[in-house]
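Try this one yourself first.
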């Protein structure tokens, strides 16, 4: 991925950060995008300390002007965009009969509307640039990777909002692949099962995102782990490797696909 420019949302921590580290190690210039500035700065410093190139852009991906501002920053900083990873997100669980409109809409906004806006805003650097390349006889692939979930494929109790948004993201992925595939834009998704992040840590730790508690009750998490054939949650690094594959030249003929990363939990 030498000299490719990669935007990764939600990359100050967890899977996003692991993904940024891997891409930087492979030669990409990485834009760390995160809601919180402190972890974004820390991630950039780690990458630079290892000889990689990175810059950060802090902000809320659900803000109406965020996509335009992020794309502008990436182009101003590194001159273009080759890879977009829509990874930012959190959960706000509740049973359907108790779920508010606000709770449902919040998940749609971050897991579906934000990726849509970012992809739409990236069209000059993906679709239009790809069309121009083909007209000039240049073969160059650009990559979009959307982070979905096993919940978006099979549903999940207490996650009607999250499951709906992640299912919608798969539909968006497949549509972009059909619309932009002719211009050598590969758009794929990863559907993660139980991966060790702050979204899947013990809820008893009391961590919140945007005022909403995140995590899984300890008893539920233990039950999930027992149902996974490999008997454990995946690591952030293992999850990031799947994204790396879809963002790299290794996947040039992979388009509109959903790569399931779950230790055999869902096949």
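Now uncover the answer:
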């Amino acid at each position: 991925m030498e000299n490719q420019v990669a935007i990764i949302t939600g990359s100050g921590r967890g899977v996003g950060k692991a993904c940024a580290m891997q891409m930087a190690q492979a030669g990409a210039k990485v834009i760390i995008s995160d809601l919180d500035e402190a972890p974004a700065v820390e991630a950039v410093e780690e990458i630079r300390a290892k000889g990689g190139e990175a810059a950060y852009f802090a902000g809320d991906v659900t803000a109406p002007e965020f996509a335009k501002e992020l794309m502008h920053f990436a182009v101003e900083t590194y001159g273009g965009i080759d890879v977009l990873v829509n990874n930012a997100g959190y959960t706000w669980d509740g049973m359907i009969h108790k779920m508010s409109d606000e709770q449902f809409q919040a998940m749609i906004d971050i897991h579906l509307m934000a990726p849509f806006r970012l992809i739409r805003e990236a069209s000059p650097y993906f679709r239009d640039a790809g069309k121009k390349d083909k007209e000039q006889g240049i073969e160059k692939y650009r990559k979009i990777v959307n982070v979905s979930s096993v919940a978006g494929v099979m549903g999940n109790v207490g996650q009607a909002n999250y499951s709906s948004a992640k299912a919608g993201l798969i539909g968006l992925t497949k549509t972009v692949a059909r619309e932009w595939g002719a211009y050598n834009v590969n758009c794929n998704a990863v559907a993660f099962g139980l991966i060790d992040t702050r979204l899947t840590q013990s809820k008893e730790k009391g961590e919140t995102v945007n005022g909403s508690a995140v995590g899984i009750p300890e008893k539920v998490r233990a039950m999930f782990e027992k149902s996974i054939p490999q008997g454990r949650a995946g690591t952030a690094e293992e999850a990031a490797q799947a994204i790396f594959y879809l963002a790299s030249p290794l996947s040039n003929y992979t388009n509109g696909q959903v790569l399931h990363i779950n230790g055999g939990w869902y096949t």
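Discussion: The chain has a mean pLDDT of 94. The domain at 5-261 is CATH 3.40.50.720 (Rossmann fold).
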